[in-house]
UniProtKB/TrEMBL annotation:
The chain crosses the membrane at residues 59-77, 84-102, 122-147. This is Lipoprotein signal peptidase. It is a multi-pass membrane protein. The gene is lspA. Its EC number is 3.4.23.36. The active site is at D112, D132. It catalyses: Release of signal peptides from bacterial membrane prolipoproteins. Hydrolyzes -Xaa-Yaa-Zaa-|-(S,diacylglyceryl)Cys-, in which Xaa is hydrophobic (preferably Leu), and Yaa (Ala or Ser) and Zaa (Gly or Ala) have small, neutral side chains. The keyword Transmembrane applies.
Length: 153
């Protein structure tokens, strides 16, 4: 269990450090190209969810976050499923959820900075942060776990 606690804390700390660096070093709206037309640092304040949906609905995010943290914490600490892939996915989901919650509580918005533009396709053109990557990775691992578990049955 201590491995998952370390992963949880490391994920939150890395997310917050990258956000702190972004706020301190990159002007709001500034775009620093890393790989032209593919990857950049782009300081954005996100008042909604992914792709800025539900813009300015902080109360809704607080409710969803509280529910998610309770469920993920229970699954991680008390849940019956103890397989590493499942626990890793839940840990990543929890770390990302807490990382973005910290921003919403203390900043009133989420700091995004990783601008990705793949093939100039609208659905592959977005700005995210480390917490978002943790959540996405957790969802992918959970889907893999569920598919593998279904194949065993």
């Amino acid at each position: 269990m201590s491995l998952y606690i370390v992963l949880l804390v490391a994920g939150i700390i890395i997310d917050q450090l990258v956000k702190w660096w972004t706020v301190a070093q990159v002007m709001l709206g500034q775009n620093i190209s890393i790989i032209p037309n593919v990857l950049a640092i782009d300081h954005v304040n996100n008042y909604g969810a992914a792709y800025n949906i539900l813009n300015n609905k902080r109360w809704l995010f607080y409710i969803i976050t509280i529910i998610a943290v309770i469920i993920f914490s229970y699954l991680l600490l008390k849940g019956k499923e103890r397989r590493p892939l499942f626990l890793t996915s839940i840990t990543l989901l929890l770390a990302g959820t807490i990382g973005n919650a910290i921003d919403r509580v203390f900043r009133g918005h989420v700091v995004d900075m990783i601008a990705i533009n793949l093939f100039n396709l609208p659905f592959l053109n977005f700005v995210c942060n480390i917490a978002d990557i943790l959540i996405t990775s957790g969802v992918i691992l959970l889907i893999v776990y569920l598919l593998k578990d279904e194949q065993k049955k």
